[in-house]
Write a structure and sequence with these properties.
Blueprint: E1 4-10, E2 15-18, E3 26-29, E4 32-39, E5 43-51, E6 55-62, H1 82-94, E7 99-106, H2 118-121, E8 122-138, E9 147-155, E10 164-165, E11 175-176, E12 191-193, H3 200-208, H4 214-220, H5 222-225, E13 237-239
Antiparallel strand pairs: 1-2, 1-7, 3-6, 4-5, 6-9, 7-8, 8-9, 10-11, 12-13
Helix pairs in contact: 3-4
């Protein structure tokens, strides 16, 4: 899974964490509700229910030292110790808010990424809001300073209820207000700090809704990026909207 970038993001990407060591696998559990009913003269039959929320389970470890041979995280994340990461995840759990879980497949060839279609540069294998259902961690003999963990996430669905309004008339009828738009947990920030593996296309797709707007980002940030839009570096701060 070395070509995957796995992120946990909180509060519209105000805080984010790239998993430092990719897990060997991500187990996805998908189930559906069923009702088995005994009908007179027909016997038992099954009624199909709705699909239930997916669960994701992954396990790996937080290393005490950065090692290029197996670590995947960006320069900013290197400053976090294993216990810093534990405290961050536990803080998110206590917030009573969903986080965003993304697994992105990255192209192994970084040359001219900004000019290529998104499918050849990067693609989101998983990109969904989730709740943290369990987070277990432990120290192991022979791994000084490392923390091994297992994390279980469950898909989260935003729900907007329709508002009932009573018209100013003598009858008792009730009007149903129009649906409110789904809340956007990805509000567009004013600026964005480039992360490891980012491309202008990838940033435009994630923050502006379509990778085709990468040229707008380049025009606004040409003084920062330079003459080649395919060369952006971690730590650069880009203007997303003026």
């Amino acid at each position: 899974m070395s070509n995957l970038s796995i992120w946990l993001k909180f509060n519209n990407e105000e805080e984010s964490l790239q998993l430092p060591v990719n897990p060997e696998s991500i187990r996805v559990s998908t189930t559906r509700g069923y009702d088995d009913v005994e009908l007179t003269q027909l016997g038992e039959t099954t009624f199909f229910g709705n699909e239930k929320l997916r669960e994701y389970t992954l396990s790996s470890f937080f290393p005490s030292e950065y090692n290029l041979s197996y670590t995947e995280y960006n320069d900013k994340s290197r400053n976090r110790t294993p216990w810093d990461i534990v405290r961050l995840i536990e803080k998110w759990m206590s917030s009573r808010k969903p986080i965003r879980f993304t697994v992105t497949s990255l192209s192994p060839d970084p040359n001219d990424m900004a000019y290529l279609p998104l499918s050849t540069v990067s693609s989101d294998v998983i990109n969904t809001p989730v709740t943290i259902r369990s987070f277990n961690y432990e120290e192991r003999a022979g791994h000084v300073g490392d923390l091994f963990y297992e994390l279980t996430l469950k898909e989260y669905r935003f729900i907007e209820f329709k508002r009932l309004t009573k018209p100013s008339s003598d009858d008792d009828s009730v009007l149903l207000a129009e649906d409110s738009p789904r809340p956007d947990d990805r509000s567009v920030p004013d600026t964005y700090e480039v992360q490891q593996g980012d491309t202008l296309w990838h940033i435009a797709k994630r923050l502006l809704g379509t990778g085709d707007r990468w040229q707008e980002l380049y025009e606004m940030n040409q003084s920062v990026i330079g003459p080649n839009p395919s060369l952006i570096y971690p730590g650069q701060v880009l203007v997303i909207r003026e």
